[in-house]
Amino acid sequence: VLYIGDSQSEGYLGGIIYEHLKKVSQVPKIKLIGVGSSSPRHWGDNRSSKNSKWLCKRSGRLNNKSAVKMKKVICDYSDQKPIFTKLNENKSDLVIFQFLGNSMGFNESYISKKIGNLLGALADSQQCLFITSPPYYKDLVEKNKLRIKTQDYFVKAIGNRCTIIKGVTEETLKDYAFKRENFLGDRIHLSKKGALAFFDMIKQDLP
Q: Which residues contact 195 (CB under 8 A, 6 or more apart)?
């Protein structure tokens, strides 16, 4: 399994899903890379692009280790292929993507293109799972409206290529988002309790 994502994957949620996958006997090898503030545009653009260059300057999670410098993990090569294309050269049986928030504010065409870059690097034989992040705390009303809109763009762009686990649903908007303990102080990122609660909602759809 190859699993890439943003700050939610870098944080508690990524760690919980990683440990879950390790316990599943039919998953012999897992690679998780989570980088805060990243989105499909950073992973799927050519290495010469400003998006990829930005990603290479970051630190993030590598499996169960945090604050790992990405330059050594995902950017230490000379050609200009997109970072995800290089990561996917071994054609993992399953690829998990976890993104949403850092694409908010971009239009549908742009998001579709950037997601298309990622999905275009997959072989027909590879299974794909796309997890979108849950909503923010309930008082961030306008941001949650934009989150819903952005998730709609994601779903259209992904189509039937990947199994989609939606983080923003009627259930999460009415229940999950109303619990302050599910979020860190910024009301955006998940607390450990929030990550566990979200994991409980989606674990039946994970391997």
A: 8, 11, 12, 13, 15, 16
Give, rounded to a whole angstrom, the gap between the first and last alpha carbons of the chain. Answer: 10
Read off the pLDDT of residues 158-173 as tens digits, 9 standing for 90 and up: 999 999 999 999 999 9
Please tell me the number of Cα atoms within 13 Å of 109 on its side-chain side.
0
Q: Of 34, 43, 31, 114, which is closest to residue 85 (Cα–Cα)? A: 43
Q: Let me know: does 126 contact 84? Beta carbons within 8 Å.
A: no
Give residue-wise pLDDT tens across range 88-143.
Answer: 999 999 999 999 999 999 999 999 999 999 999 999 999 999 999 999 999 999 99
> What is d(CA 135, CA 20) in angstroms, rounded to the nearest whole number?
23
Contact in structure between 172 and 200 (CB atoms under 8 Å): no
DSSP state, residue 99 = -
Closest listed residue to residue 150, CA positions, set 96, 111, 202, 187: 111
pTM equals 0.97
CB 65 within 8 Å of CB 56:
no
| Distance separating alpha carbons of residues 126 and 114, to the nearest angstrom | 19
Distance CA(150)–CA(172), nearest Å, equals: 16
Structure tokens at 67: 């604050």
| DSSP letters for 10-31 | HSHHHHHHHHHHHH-TT----E
Amino acid letter at 118? L
